[in-house]
Amino acid sequence: MASPPRTYLDLILACDNFPYIDFPKTSISTFTSPVSSLFYRLLLPSDPRPHGFIHPSVVAAMPWTPHFRISPPTDHPRNVQILDPTGADPRGASNAAFAAVVQRAIDLRVFDSLNKKRSTEDYRIVGARYPTVRVRRAAAPLFGIACLGAHLTMYVRSESAGRGSRGEEGLRIWVPRRSRAVSTFPGKLDSSIAGGIAAHESALECLVHEAAEEASLPESLIRERARACGTITYVGMTETGVEDGSAVPGVLYVHDMEVDETVVPKPMDDEVEEFYLWDVPQVRDALLRGEFKTNCALVMIDFFVRHGIITQENESDYLEIITRLHRPLPVPLSPTNVAH
After folding, report:
1. pLDDT(20) > 50
2. pTM of whole model > 0.90?
3. Alpha helix (H) ranges present in the chain?
4. How far is residue 52's CA from residue 94's CA, in Å, rounded to a whole number?
5. pLDDT for 264-311, tens place per residue?
6. Which residue from 209, 206, 232 is spatially nearest to 295, judged by alpha carbons?
7. For FRET with 277, which of 47, 60, 120, 149 sits at 20 to 30 Å CA-CA?
8. Rounded distance, CA 210 to CA 195, Å?
9. How far apart are alpha carbons 306 and 190 in whole angstroms?
């Protein structure tokens, strides 16, 4: 059994674990596969920018429908192009294409990841030039599409420390433990409130309903107290099934919420086992023991940086940590920009 991470940087590398490569040009034989091959670019109608990079094993296994044109293996670059037969409705053509091929893959039980996840929620393709292009949440990693999440860290400052204080003095953080019955990261520690951002909602709207479902917290509290603090970006790598070695870009919208001791989160649904109110040494020790869900560890490290707990003076990897928490992604994040 592998030993748990021992440094903050180890924790980041465990989540941001896809190699830094030029996707259209780098053979995957250099890092994941014994067969020399290149990723396929996912192209939407009337848009030359790749919105995802698809592993060749996924391309080979996917039961493609006539909505797509697939490049022959000899092409460079290789493309998976969504077709818009009329040329007048790229949004509708994209949504119909994704819905049809994902449902066909589910019916044929091609990918375990599609059949074991019951959610019918959709993610949006964040950089699409026409709103809203969507794909089933469980299928997004298959297409290499950026997955969006919202995370909130809820904390308490003692009266002696005073509101607005920095550093760990008088600081305690609400940390939930995931249910041991959930399919992903059972029993791991999590962000205070977190969830994937559905195609129809904003980060704040996501936190509002997740706070009610997971922690029994009212909408008014989240809307009044939650403070947006930026984003974290990374590229993870799948490690199971046909899609092993696929690249999964991630964007986490991070929020802080300071509360007093009268605000106590309580599990509402079956996804959270219990909540702990821990001081910084307790949270730090749990982090370095590898007890946190991988992307939630990044959220907590970012919180530590922003609150002056991790500093240049006490952390030799400080600059590398800052850089790796904000990795440039290989897909566009706005309708007009290109990927890095």
Report:
1. yes
2. yes
3. 8-15, 56-61, 90-107, 112-115, 140-143, 203-215, 219-225, 280-288, 294-306, 318-324
4. 14
5. 999 988 889 999 999 999 999 999 999 999 999 999 999 999 999 999
6. 232
7. 149
8. 6
9. 19
The Cα 45–Cα 303 span in angstroms is 39
Which has more pLDDT, 123 or 184? 123
- How many other β-carbons are positioned within 10 Å of the β-carbon of residue 102? 23
Token pair 């500093």 is found at: 311
Contact between residue 317 and residue 8 where contact means Cβ atoms under 8 Å apart = yes
Tokens of 182: 């959930």
CA distance 78 to 44: 14
234-243 burial, b for 16+ CB within 10 Å, e for fewer? bbbbbeebbb
Residue matched to tokens 């041991």: 180
Strand boundaries in the chain, DSSP class E? 40-43, 50-54, 68-70, 78-82, 122-124, 134-136, 147-157, 171-178, 193-196, 227-237, 247-259, 272-279
pLDDT tens, position by position, 46-80: 999 999 999 999 999 999 999 999 999 888 889 99
CA R_g for the chain:
21
